[in-house]
């Protein structure tokens, strides 16, 4: 359906340069991110004025600017987690995506035009994990209409909570044309695991975790949620809400369960559903 949809469109794209604001925020130590929270949300204010492309282009990784992973805050594990967080927020944010070569597996060197990419890094699990994460994000974008059917329309996006700067979290909905087809996205921009974190949702149902940037298959710590059921508890302007555990420096994508027989263990969901079986 995604390919048919793209073929029907006659669209010109405009580069949304404020993706650099998100990059700047993830350069900051997480303890200071609450002071730069608006840098993460500002781009939504005009995301639907044009057909925007979200670029992390070669301009970010040339002329002594360093690589994307090198710009991330923290030690090596945190840099990898921050990079997966950055990509997951880019992919779930309204707009089409552009990622310059080498970024998809976390190349440490900045790009150079007189040599090849550092493919040898794929011998290491942390870089294999980043590559799997980008691959699965692409698969998710291709297979979930909520991510592309209304990419350039206000009706395809709704904030759940964009103002929790003290916890450095964001939550929002992406919506397909079918009102029953939507996704919940929750981002945690700190290295703290957040237990019993309440998020408002539009109905009483079960939700399944269909993507988790902290999955062990991506090199994460594998903090995840098994089965999630909403409750009639008002939260963030919604009559109902869910209680989840947020992984450190991670993004969750949740989907309402319409067929209970389709529910799988969230720990293996990314691996089995997206073809990363071992």
Total DSSP E strands: 11
What is the H level of CATH, i.e. the homologous superfamily of the largest domain? Glycosidases
DSSP summary: helix tally: 7
Separation of the first and last Cα atoms: 28 Å
Describe this structure in words.
The chain is α+β, with helices and mostly antiparallel strands. The protein has 7 helices and 11 strands. It has 2 domains: 142 residues, TIM Barrel, CATH 3.20.20; 119 residues, Golgi alpha-mannosidase II (Immunoglobulin-like, Sandwich), CATH 2.60.40. The strands form 3 sheets. It has a 6-stranded antiparallel β-sheet. Strands 1-2-3 form a 3-stranded parallel β-sheet, with no helix packed on it. The longest helix has 19 residues. The N terminus and C terminus are likely disordered.
Features:
TIM Barrel; 2 domains; alpha+beta; disordered C terminus; disordered N terminus; six-stranded antiparallel β-sheet; 7 helices; three-stranded parallel β-sheet; 278 residues; Immunoglobulin-like
Topology summary:
Elements: H1 2-8, E1 14-15, H2 19-27, H3 38-41, E2 52-56, H4 68-71, H5 76-92, E3 96-99, H6 125-143, E4 157-161, E5 169-175, E6 182-188, E7 194-201, E8 206-212, E9 227-229, E10 240-246, E11 250-256, H7 266-273
Question: How would you briefly describe this protein structure?
Answer:
The protein is α+β, with helices and mostly antiparallel strands and 278 residues long. The chain contains seven helices and eleven strands.
């Amino acid at each position: 359906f995604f390919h048919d949809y793209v073929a029907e469109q006659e669209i010109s794209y405009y580069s949304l340069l404020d993706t650099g604001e998100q990059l700047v925020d993830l350069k900051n130590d997480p303890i200071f991110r609450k002071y730069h929270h608006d840098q993460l949300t500002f781009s939504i204010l005009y995301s639907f004025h044009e057909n925007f492309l979200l670029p992390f282009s070669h301009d970010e990784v040339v002329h002594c600017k360093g690589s994307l992973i090198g710009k991330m805050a923290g030690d090596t594990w945190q840099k990898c987690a921050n990079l997966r967080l950055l990509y997951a927020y880019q992919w779930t944010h309204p707009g089409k995506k552009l990622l310059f070569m080498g970024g998809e597996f976390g190349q440490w060197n900045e790009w150079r035009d007189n040599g090849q990419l550092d493919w040898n890094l794929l011998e290491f699990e942390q870089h294999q994990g980043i590559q799997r994460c980008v691959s699965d994000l692409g698969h998710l974008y291709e297979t979930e209409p909520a991510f592309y059917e209304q990419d350039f329309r206000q009706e395809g996006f709704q904030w759940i909570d964009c103002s929790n700067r003290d916890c450095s979290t964001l939550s929002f909905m992406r919506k397909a044309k079918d009102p029953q087809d939507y996704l919940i996205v929750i981002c945690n921009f700190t290295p703290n695991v957040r237990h019993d974190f309440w998020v408002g949702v539009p109905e009483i149902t079960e939700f399944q975790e269909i993507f988790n940037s902290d999955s062990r298959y991506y090199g994460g710590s594998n903090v995840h949620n098994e089965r999630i059921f909403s409750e009639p508890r008002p939260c963030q302007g919604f009559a109902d809400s869910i209680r989840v555990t947020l992984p450190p420096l991670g993004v969750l994508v949740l989907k309402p369960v319409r067929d209970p027989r389709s529910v799988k263990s969230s720990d293996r969901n990314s691996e089995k559903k997206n073809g990363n079986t071992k």
